[in-house]
Amino acid sequence: MTQVLRPGRLRLGVNIDHVATIRNARGGDHPDPVRAAEIVARVGGDGITAHLREDRRHIRDDDLRRIQAATNLPLNLEMAATEEMLAIALAHMPHAACIVPEKREERTTEGGLDAAGLHNQLAPIVSRLADAGIRVSLFIEASERQLEAAMRLGAPVVEFHTGEYAHAHLDGDGEKLSAELKRLTDMAALAAKNGIEPHAGHGLTYENVQPIAAIPQLAELNIGHYLVGEAVFVGLEAAVRRMRDLMDDAR
């Protein structure tokens, strides 16, 4: 299907990786992440995010094709900066490719990509993705150094890692929470000023999403683990609808 962006509001991209994690824990085909993508499309999600990891711990190669065939929502492929993943992205042609750091031993993505330190490795990958018409995003910490690196690389989008903000909220550390929110707010404004579209994600929940959603320059939030976890109790449709309502209310 043709993938279409829905303009005019803070977009919600739903990461369906952990539906596949549950499937893979036992093997077989259930629960199917494609069904999750179809539900997200039906209830007002704006995009599907999927991370094809080197070890295929959740999303598998064939899931990408099936997701693209099942829904017209834009697919945001999270990928490591490797030749293998570049070839897969070029074969599947997702709407966007978000380059993320990846370590085999980590449980989830730990921190942002060091775009500044990895410039020479990233530059040809960013260039080849862009030449193919795939919108490149870099998953980075909200810092001037990393944002400047994204600008040098010519990335049209950055996704700011909100993990430290989420940890401060969970710990009840009001001082750090305020500092992290200010950092994210300032960097979103700086990105927009320099023509880069800022997104945000990692660790966002019903309880902490609204201050992030209220940052006016942010165009998209990507949320996955929390929504899949809530879906165990209330269903994916209800979980996505509530997150969508909280985001809308914050704006």
What does this structure look like?
This protein has 251 residues and is α/β, with parallel strands linked by helices. It has a single domain, classed as Alpha-Beta Barrel (TIM Barrel), CATH 3.20.20.70. Helices cover 49% and strands 16% of the residues. The protein has 11 helices and 8 strands. An 8-stranded parallel barrel has the order 1-2-3-4-5-6-7-8, surrounded by 8 helices. The chain is globular, with a radius of gyration of 17 Å. The relative contact order is 0.14.
What's the layout of helices and strands?
Elements: E1 11-15, H1 17-26, H2 33-42, E2 47-51, H3 61-70, E3 75-79, H4 83-92, E4 96-99, H5 119-131, E5 135-140, H6 144-153, E6 157-161, H7 163-171, H8 174-193, E7 197-201, H9 209-213, E8 220-223, H10 225-234, H11 236-250
Parallel strand pairs: 1-2, 1-8, 2-3, 3-4, 4-5, 5-6, 6-7, 7-8
Helix pairs in contact: 2-3, 7-8, 10-11
If classified by CATH, what would the architecture be?
A: Alpha-Beta Barrel
Mean pLDDT: 94
Helix content: 40-55%
Total beta strands: 8
In N-to-C order, the SSE pattern is EHHEHEHEHEHEHHEHEHH
User: Radius of gyration, rounded?
Assistant: 17 Å
Biggest beta sheet attributes: 8 strands, parallel, barrel
General shape = globular
Counting DSSP H or I runs of 4 or more residues, the number of helices is 11
What distance lies between the first and last C-alpha atoms, to the nearest angstrom?
Answer: 31 Å
Widest β-sheet, arrangement of strands: 1-2-3-4-5-6-7-8
Total separate domains: 1
